[in-house]
Structure formats: C-alpha cells, structure tokens
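Key idea: predict the complex, not the pieces.
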Amino acid sequence: MNEIVRTGAKVMFPLILLFGIYVIVHGHTTPGGTFSGGSIMAGGFVIYTLAHGVRKTEIDMKEIAINVLKSVSGFILIMLILFELFLRTALVPTETLFTLWSGSSLMFFNIVGGVMVFTGLLMIWYTIARTDVE
Amino acid sequence: MNEKIKLPVGLGCIVIVLGFMIFSIFNAGFAQWESKSIAGFFINEGWRQLSATNTVTTIVWEYRGYDTLGEETILFTAAMGVFAIGAGLFAAEKTQSSREKATLSPSVKEPVKA
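Result:
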C-alpha cells in the first residue's frame, strides 16, 4: 500500500491495540468484553497486514507464538473453570464495585477468553491472507 | 416417492410446522415472564454475588459459563479448520509446482515503493 495508508496504520495500530486491551480488561464494568475486545485487537493486526504486507506481519507476530498463546490460554481457561469457586470466595471480600479491581473471576475469564478470540481470528486471517485471492 | 404427491406433502409439512410455531408463540405468555423468569435474580443478586456491575458479563461467564466454553471451543475448531484448509491448499500448490505464481495477491504481498 502507499505512504498514506502506511503512516495511518503506524499511528492507529498501537491505539487500536490499546483500545482492545481496555475493552477486554474492563469487560466486567463497562459494555464489551471477550469477543468485542478480541475482535478489535485482531482488526488492528488486519490493518497492519494491509499496510505492511503479510511477510512483515509474520516476522513481527510469529505464527508459532500465536499457536502457543492460544494453547496456553485454553489450558488456563480450563484451570480457571475448575478452580473458579475458590477464586471467587477468596477475591470477592477484597473488592469494591465500580472499580477495575472488581468482578472476582470475571476479569481473568475476560482476559483469557479475549486472548483466545484474538489468536483464533488472527489464525484465520493469516490463512486467508496467505492464500491466493485472484 | 411419487412426483405428484411430493409437492402437497412438502407443503403440508411446512404448514404444520409453521402452525405449531405460531401456536406456541401465542401460547408462550409474554405477559407472565416477569413472575416466571430468573431475570430478576440476575439483576438483583448478580452484582452482589460477583461484585461486577456488567450483568451481561456476569451471565455470560458465570451463570452460563459452560455455554461460553462451548463457544470458545467452536471458535478454536473453526480456526483449526480454516488453518487445515489453508495447509491443504499450500500442499496442493507445492505438488503442482506453481508456488511462485500463486502464493500471494499483489495487493497484500509487499508494500509498493512510492
């Protein structure tokens, strides 16, 4: 793509990632959460790919890192589901409403699920971008 | 099945199913949902049990958590399916030795030097 698109992507890419992380982390106090935040972060990488090409994106965000991240987050999700009750009983008395430190186990669920959605959409996008579209 | 009988039987099945759906919709009793449902419990007790103000997240990840686990599994399976289809396409291209011709479209291949 041309210079304008590349400069715009360079400016917008960190902000999009930051906004996605904000939506994921604040999923228990404000609207949003797992799927919307993960989709926003994957959309940031789509813009990065359209501006810089698939080769540079694959060098910056390696596919093996995506696979490892997805597998580890899935394992942590199952562990969280198994030990959710202990986490809730331990965390709820220490928290206050309307702050970031609330929503006992929901914040961890949101983070892990957001990473899973983000990596899944990114795997699909890499596969689509690498194949021939002519 | 006979060709003459196929159309009336199909239309009859469609009419029966649609009639049952409309009948059940009118019999559902939307007016009594307030007293029957558990929405009041979610709204009144959900934030107290989990200290979270977003009730939608409370329902999705706690009261309905196994369903969300299934959704994540579906997403994981979909990603792996697309990945497998792409890998199969690459393998087919390699065997046809047209790898250089059909790897990437020019629009996403490399940045054009302006």
